[in-house]
Structure formats: C-alpha cells, structure tokens
C-alpha cells in the first residue's frame, strides 16, 4: 500500500531552507507563502525578521533621494505621475547644482550613507549626463556620502561614463514580473530594462532593482517577480506599494490591504535572504503609521529619508527615531565602501 505524500508546511520548510541554510525560496514556494491565510501572518513576519537578522545583520541602511529632473517623461508607465502623457499634476522641472549639494548635505546629516540622484527620463541625454557629472563633482567636494543614480535606460557608453564618475550604485526598477510588464508599460520592454541592469552589473556598479506591488498583478505574477529579482541578484531591492495617482491609468486601482503588503514583503525576504530590502514609496497609505515598525520587524533593512520624489513620505526623524526604539543601528558609511 502506498501512503499519500506528506504535505510539508511552507513556513517549516522555509525555516530549515532559508533561515538555517541561507537558500532562497523558489517561485512556487514564494507563491505558497503569498497564499498563506491571515492567521499565519505574525509567524511569517517573525520568520522573515529572523532571516534578515541572520543573513544581513541588524544594521539598517538609510538613503536619501533627490529629483534632478521631475516630470515630463515621454514613457507611459501607468503608475507614474511623472509621465508627460497623462493628465497628472507633476510639471517638468530641473534642480540646480547648489540645491543638489544642499540636499546631499542634509541627507548626510541624517546619518544616511547613500544619496541617489533621480531623473524622470526614458534614458539620459548629453545635457543630463553633464549635469549629473557636475553635480557629483560638487557633492564630492563637500559631502562624504556614496552616490547612486537612477536615470532610466542606458547605453553601454553611458554605463561606462557613470562608472568612470564613481557612481556606486545604479537604480533601475523592473517594476513588476516579466509577464505583467506589458500591462504596465507599453513604450519600452522588460528586456530593455533587464539589459541596462546587466550592463550596470558588468561595469562593477552595485545594482538596485525593485518595483511596485499592487498594480493588478496576480499572486502568481507577484511570485514570478520575486523569482525574476532573485535571478538578477541585485544588491538592493526597493519595494513600493502602488499609491494610485490621480490622472494616471492606475489612478483608480485599490490600495493593497496592509496585511497583504506585509505578507508580500516577508515573502520577498524569503526569496532574497541576503539582499538589502528597502521600503520605498507608498507605504504610508498602505500600512499607516504602524507599517514602518511591522516592516522593519518583518524583513526590511533599509529606509529612505525625506520625500519620495512626487509624494510626501514620513518625516525623516520619525523613521530614525523608530530605529533607535528598535535598537537597530544605522549602517555606517565605512561599512558600505
Ligand atoms: S520611465 Fe520613469 S519617470 Fe518615466 S514614466 Fe516610467 S517610471 Fe515614470
């Protein structure tokens, strides 16, 4: 007589596989985690926290972000209020170099080790790259901080230029799973984004790549996205939750329920045990005030201070006070060199 195969509980399996051995969950295992009932949430968050503490340590990376060029982007990412194709209120604007240096100074003062210069573009043109080069030089002369950039899709020549400028990390988000991407963006492809990321990695810069949850993807596609990221092996993954912006095609989508957002963060931690997992935009409306605490105790180990480009984040002090309360040290600049 053959006995029925014993169904192993996915959290028991994750405890052994991810926590003990440091081996990531695969796509179907991540899906099982995403399908767990509400009453397993606390257990899941505790496990994700243990995984983060064991494989990343207690430090939390603090980063600042500044928009060098806002709005007027020719692309049609359906979530984005900076697209010039939608009726959204964000207007095109450029920041000058002194303001950039001032923002870097303020960011460094908050204890942040990384300062990311962002531009709303399909990819940089010569004018933008010249502005970035001048900005980086001016910041280096006055502020001790690592510099990251997020300037859209790059050519090989542009990748080499940024590496030569000493850019430490490059952010370019895949945004969602490969199968869901055509429902989110039609003006460029997922593979074009992937190619930029591959060139960035080969040039020796750190790769920062994440996306937005709650853009109408199925749980299967969310698990697929976690697996896509695991294959890329980024140094950092910023996780955003959709904050539906008026005037964008996703303006009427429902906000992800808090428990689902937290469950997703924990599932991504189990798929990416050693990666810096950062809370990025949209968490205030999804998670409310308690969200930061639950997230940092559920797998997150990096936060952004200050504004999130076009929507207001929590004040920096609130996040930094929280880290003191939780006795989690801010990652020092020296550790990141
Ligand atoms: S490329 Fe970037 S700035 Fe432009 S619409 Fe897409 S997300 Fe927004």
From TrEMBL:
Catalytic activity: (4R,5S)-dethiobiotin + (sulfur carrier)-SH + 2 reduced [2Fe-2S]-[ferredoxin] + 2 S-adenosyl-L-methionine = (sulfur carrier)-H + biotin + 2 5'-deoxyadenosine + 2 L-methionine + 2 oxidized [2Fe-2S]-[ferredoxin]
Named cofactor requirement(s): [4Fe-4S] cluster; [2Fe-2S] cluster
Radical SAM core domain ranges (all copies): 58-283
Gene3D superfamilies named among the record's database cross-references: Aldolase class I (3.20.20.70)
Binding site for [4Fe-4S] cluster: 73, 77, 80
EC numbers: 2.8.1.6
GO BP annotations, alphabetical order: biotin biosynthetic process
Superkingdom per UniProt: Bacteria
Cofactor remark from the record: Binds 1 [4Fe-4S] cluster. The cluster is coordinated with 3 cysteines and an exchangeable S-adenosyl-L-methionine. Binds 1 [2Fe-2S] cluster. The cluster is coordinated with 3 cysteines and 1 arginine.
Keywords from the UniProt entry: 2Fe-2S, 4Fe-4S, Biotin biosynthesis, Iron, Iron-sulfur, Metal-binding, S-adenosyl-L-methionine, Transferase
Subunit organization: Homodimer.
HAMAP family for the chain: BioB
Family: Belongs to the radical SAM superfamily. Biotin synthase family.
The protein's name in its UniProt record: Biotin synthase
UniProt gene name: bioB
């Amino acid at each position: 007589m053959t006995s029925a195969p014993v169904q192993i509980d996915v959290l028991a399996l994750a405890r052994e596989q991810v926590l003990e051995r440091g081996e990531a969950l695969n796509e179907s295992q991540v899906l099982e985690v995403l399908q767990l009932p509400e009453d397993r949430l606390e257990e899941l968050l505790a496990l994700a926290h243990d995984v983060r503490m064991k494989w990343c340590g207690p430090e939390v990376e603090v980063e600042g972000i500044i928009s060098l060029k806002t709005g007027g982007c020719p692309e049609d990412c359906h979530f984005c209020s900076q697209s010039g194709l939608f009726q959204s209120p964000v207007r095109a604007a450029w920041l000058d170099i002194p303001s950039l240096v001032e923002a870097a100074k303020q960011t460094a003062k908050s204890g942040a080790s990384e300062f990311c210069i962002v531009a709303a573009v399909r990819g940089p043109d010569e004018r933008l790259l010249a502005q970035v080069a001048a900005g980086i030089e001016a910041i280096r002369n006055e502020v001790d901080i690592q510099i990251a950039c997020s300037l859209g899709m790059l050519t090989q020549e542009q990748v080499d230029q940024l590496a030569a400028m000493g850019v430490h990390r490059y952010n370019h988000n895949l945004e969602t799973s490969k199968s869901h991407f055509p429902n989110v963006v039609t003006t460029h492809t997922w593979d074009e984004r992937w190619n930029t990321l591959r060139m960035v990695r080969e040039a020796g810069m750190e790769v920062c790549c994440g996306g937005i949850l709650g853009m109408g993807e199925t749980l299967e596609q969310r698990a697929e996205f976690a697996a896509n990221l695991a294959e890329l092996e980024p140094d950092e993954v910023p996780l955003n939750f959709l904050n539906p912006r008026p005037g964008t095609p996703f303006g009427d989508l429902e906000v992800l329920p808090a428990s689902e957002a937290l469950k997703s963060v924990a599932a991504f931690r189990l798929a990416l045990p050693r990666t810096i997992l950062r809370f990025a935009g949209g968490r205030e409306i999804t998670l409310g005030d308690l969200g930061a605490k639950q997230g940092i105790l559920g797998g997150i180990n990096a936060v952004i201070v200050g504004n999130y480009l076009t929507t207001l984040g929590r004040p920096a002090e609130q996040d930094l006070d929280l880290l003191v309360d939780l006795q989690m040290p801010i990652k020092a600049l020296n550790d990141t060199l």
